[in-house]
Known about the structure:
The structure holds 2 protein chains of 2 kinds.
Chain A: H1 3-13, H2 15-50, E1 55-59, H3 63-70, E2 81-82, H4 83-91, E3 95-107, E4 110-115, H5 118-122, E5 127-130, E6 138-141, H6 143-149, E7 156-157, E8 160-161, E9 175-181, E10 191-195, H7 196-203, E11 214-215, E12 217-222, H8 227-238, E13 241-244, H9 246-299, H10 304-340, H11 355-380, H12 384-389
Parallel strand pairs in A: 4-10, 6-9
Antiparallel strand pairs in A: 1-12, 1-13, 2-11, 3-4, 3-8, 3-12, 5-9, 6-10, 7-9
Helix pairs in contact in A: 1-10, 2-9, 2-10, 2-11, 9-10, 9-11, 10-11
Chain B: E1 2-9, E2 17-18, E3 22-24, E4 30-33, H1 40-47, E5 55-60, E6 63-64, H2 70-80, E7 81-84, H3 96-106, H4 113-122, H5 138-151, E8 156-160, H6 168-184, E9 188-193, E10 205-207
Parallel strand pairs in B: 4-9, 4-10, 7-8, 8-9
Antiparallel strand pairs in B: 1-2, 1-3, 1-5, 5-6
Bound molecules: adenosine-5'-triphosphate and magnesium ion.
Amino acid sequence: MTIVGISIKALKAKKLSSFLSVLLVAFGMAIITTLILVSHQLTQKLERNAANVDAVVGAKGSPLQLILSSVYFIDFPTGNIPLKNFEEIKRNRMVKTAVPIALGDSYEGYRIVGTEPSFLQLHQLQIAEGKLWSKNFEIVIGADVAKAKNLKLGALIYGSHGLTTGAEVHEEHPYRVVGILSKQHTSADQLVLTPLSSIWGMHHHEEIVEEEQDITSILIQYRSPVSTILFPKMINEQTNLQAASPAIESARLFSLVGIGFDVLHYFAILIMVIAAISVFITLFSSLKERKYDLAVLRILGASKQQLFTMMLIEGVILTFIGALLGLAAGHILVEVLGSLDGASQVLFSGYLFLNDEFYVLWAGIGLGIIAAIIPAIQVYRYDIAKILNN
Amino acid sequence: MITLSGITYTYPNTKTIHFKDLTIKSDEHCLVLGNSGSGKTTLLNILTGLLKPSSGTVNINQQDLYQLKGNDLDQWRARHLGIVFQKSYLIPSLTVSENLRVAQKFAKLKEDKNRILEVLEQLQISDRLNHYPKQLSMGQLQRVSIARAVLNKPKYIIADEPTSSLDDENAKAVLDLFLAQAAANQADLIIATHDKRVKDCFPNTYQI
Ligand SMILES: Nc1ncnc2c1ncn2[C@@H]1O[C@H](COP(=O)(O)OP(=O)(O)OP(=O)(O)O)[C@@H](O)[C@H]1O
Ligand SMILES: [Mg+2]
């Protein structure tokens, strides 16, 4: 019989209140774990997608919407701009790289992006199998698309009009898969890339006239950081286009989402405090019945320090089990969230373990010690003669 | 050998209890007699190192009890005294066998399953090894607590009113049990009681 063994048996003897304490700790821990995992993956995803894009130029409208649709491929585009704007901007001295993007069609919920090979260079995309397109209606698909739809090189797919599933299908022009990208852990995993002219060809069945060569937006990489201020100013003032910065817009987005995270965070802390109080009550109220047992242990030779430790161990066992369960529940929850919407652009994985979680685990153990300290001090001070004579 | 000299004890707001000097030789049992409220329990607490007397000294086998401090006193008590409480005070979350193992552990003795079986057999409850205290009758509980008291072969077995709540027949049986256990484990008995039925079995009495 070790002290830990005695503690465990004591906790087992009052199953209900021990269970409730563990449950509360687990609940708080699960929320905190979920928050840590989700915010980490969200931030990382946002940062990775925008890593090489300094600015996006598109039709006037909400800058956030422009960024969301052209960098993260989630929202709807702001509108079309003529291709000749792209030619002008490409020649601008401040611009190092300009990549055109044409959105509008999709394949089973995955967006079809009309662009140029420079898109792959800008985002540093590697082709894992096959090659880049060489003519219209050839496509290079993201790793997730290939996996989810089980597409091999040479497969034919049909795009449909619009960005949601179930819309009208363009049956006359199949796309042929000529390349599959390696896994990037960015939105590119869920994209279908094709030359711009495929998009135009799809919607205009005759010869393509120049006026109809529209694109959605232009991804920009600057020649020097100095342009960060000058370039948007120039675009916004001198053209009827807008330039938006992914860094600024995602920071703005995150500060909006962040409020929600903060609220949840405080909620989780509140639950943990309640959990600590519950552990405290579990231990403290059990002392009323257990003080005789503890006094007897002293008679049997246990020291004050051993009983003190025993109470702390009981608190820590409750919070530690709760913390472990909470961590597991958090990971499962995130995994479930990630798998709920297969085509979602922001995929979460529960198979990710972060250092922050260790701090949470330590915090959980600390919580147990704090909750148990008062009962432990009380036990330490017991006057055993008095207890045994009552 | 136990010697008490000049022992007094004063509870707050009560008049001081004076205890006569006493010497109990080795291999002698001793009965502490006195009316209710006379101070028997107080004396046993002083003897077992639980209650520091207001004055006087307690010597047990050449050890001045109150020279020992803190954990040393706890250890000394665990090694030399076996205490049986009026109520049983077994740990309810532990089985009979675990209750005895705890007694070996905290006295810093090796866990010895054979010894545990031996005492439980002597007290005829070895079949209840894996039962929890709440599954035992009052009499069985008392026997387990006697088993625990003699487990570590203490020099003295100290019991407070072990028979007062029992009928004549059972009182006799329990007393025989104590005497038999003391003999089997070479321990001396010190029993406090106001129960006149016990008196005849003990030549040595200490009247408060
Ligand atoms: N904690 C205490 N505070 C104040 N007075 C106490 C306390 N404990 C005992 N006393 C008093 O000290 C006296 C002796 O008490 P003690 O318990 O030793 O008596 P006892 O001989 O064991 O009695 P009984 O046979 O009823 O068990 C009593 O008058 C009692 O009221
Ligand atoms: Mg008494």
